[in-house]
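Troubleshooting log. The previous structure file for this entry was overwritten by mistake, so regenerating from the original sequence record. Sequence copied from the archived sheet and checked twice against the printout by T.R.
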Amino acid sequence: MAPTVGVIVNPTSGKGKGGKSAPELGTLLHRRGIDAALLVAGSADEALAMARKAVADGVDAIVAAGGDGTINLAVQAVAGTDTPLAVIPLGTGNDNARLLGLPLDDLEKCVDVIADFTVRSIDLGHVVTADGSERYFLGVLSSGFDSCVNERANVMTWPKGEARYLVGILAELRTFSAVPYTVTVDGQVHRDKGMLVAVGNGTSYGGGMNVCAGAEPDDGELTLTWLHQVSKFEFLRTFPKVYKGTHVTHPSVTQLNGTTITLEAPDQIAYADGERIGPLPAEVTVQPGALKVIVPSDSRLGL
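Regenerated output below.
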């Protein structure tokens, strides 16, 4: 019997790349003998409901065809189940696809990975925020400067696309100041001001910013990266190093590992996998082996 998959397609991913790629994706899956049902919905809530129903109905896998937001939505449907997640990276950043070792910008090779059906078990992060919102995440949860930029960019009507985020950065730099944080890692309390505090099950966000460099998604731990108070000049000087992960050697950066991490700071919003979750305080816990994922056969994940 042909394997069956439910495919969550985000038509807006990658500046419309998701929608344009859907017909080709369906054809490629069919050619590899995979019975694919496209789960196209009018909203994220509807898409999640469709994905959960597909899991309950016994599909062999859920495929997230889109960016990190689409992957995050799919994770909510398969977390803690025996149904694996497959990914077709069609977003602009594709940080979590990169984390899983998937080929980027090659639809056919990604379908080959699905057809080979090599499954690994990896960890997930789980967050509960002050307003009761909760969510699993695969990559990075963030707070501080970058979350403030997201908050600002989300209400801007101009410019569009990635330029809006860049304008948000410039605008936020004019007013942002370090925030007093209380961070608890496995019962150990740490207090200090911070420019940015992130918790990673994975390493990167924002299209390759390796904020939680060194994090492993299969080690049963989370990695906290804390940029303490620095001048705006030093912040601007240090921030570009995040792309290579070399910022973690800066004397004002602390990294800690743990299984349960609580973040407390005034007027801060948590984002995870680029999705708005809710206000701090937030409790973040690792969920070991909670996600089954289809990866390239030579991947070291889950080994």
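The chain has a mean pLDDT of 90. Archived copy saved in two places this time.
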